[in-house]
What we know:
With 322 residues, this protein is an alpha/beta fold. It folds into two domains: 6-102 and 293-311, Rossmann fold; 104-284, Rossmann fold (3-Layer(aba) Sandwich), CATH 3.40.50. It is 32% helix and 15% strand. The strands form two sheets. Strands 8-7-6-9-10-11-12 form a seven-stranded parallel β-sheet. A five-stranded parallel β-sheet has the order 2-1-3-4-5, sandwiched between helices. Helix 1 runs parallel beside helix 11 (293-311) and helix 5 (104-119) packs across helix 7. The longest helix is centred in the last third of the chain and has 19 residues, at 293-311. The radius of gyration is 21 Å and the shape is globular. 2-keto-D-gluconic acid binds next to loops.
Amino acid sequence: MSAKPTILVTRQFPKAVMQRLRENYTLIDNPDDHDLSPDELISNATKAEAILCDPTNHFSKAVIDQLPSNIGLITTFSVGYDHIDAAAANEKGIKLGNTPDVLTDATADIALLCMLGASRLAYKAAQALRGGKWGRWSSTDFLGFHMSGKKLAIIGMGRIGQAVARRAIGFDMQIHYHNRRPVMAGGLEEAIYHTELESLLPNASYLSLNCPLTPQTHHLINENTIKLLPENAVIVNTARGAVIDDNALIPALQSGRVAAAGLDVFENEPNFDKRYLDLENVFLLPHIGSATYETRDAMGFKCCDNLDAYFAGEDIPNPITA
Ligand code: 8YV
């Protein structure tokens, strides 16, 4: 029997995933699940031929350049890959894989939760109940913003953006979107395409961010773009925190220029801007877009499929093609 290939597994992944990995590979793993430093990523990769990582591992050009030449594949337990310098990996001949499709529904579900949680001020209401402050029913307490029937603007109409749009249609929302190209199918034929943010944002009674983080989308929601939103807009982010400039959004939430926000992702997470904690009009979640048992298993199995194909000398089924 030939020896199992050795792989670096940077985090603890779901039990069924770890089991499948152990059956086929010798693992250099991370039993206490700590955040590996760049130096640890490099030194732990010395004996490995491939790496299974997640977005907490930053594969900058400097890290990739120092990886040993035996590393031929990095497969990430995520669909987003802004934590990997893809150009540096390409240059070094390292293949890249990710986990598309299987987290689309779970993440779109959380986007809707954020939309509802933000617009119905769910945090404020839940906190009052838990804090023993629900003394009486009142027709003027805990009032939020009506979501059904409003306009929803989506930035980034990939798989997750489309799934958000389809769900929002169930709430009778009118869909507007900005994307590199129009999306004409999948029940979204009536969605209104905007080539420019300047024409999209005035329609954003609700704004859902579903774009990848790139140099072009970094701080896309900033002081200038917030000015284009209608009064009482609700902003929801389930993509990447750094698409929003916190220094613009927080004052807009404090002043009421933006009515509410639902945020599942943050710039520099988990060290997010603590000013959000003082705001009753935000609904905050700790990056749980894909956090269901089913989805996390499926993400792990996609990574296994990538590894298995790579070591069989085949094309990997979920390549990052940037
Ligand atoms: C994951 C995500 O939960 O896949 C992504 O890009 O942001 C999330 O849904 C996260 O990356 C953990 O792997």
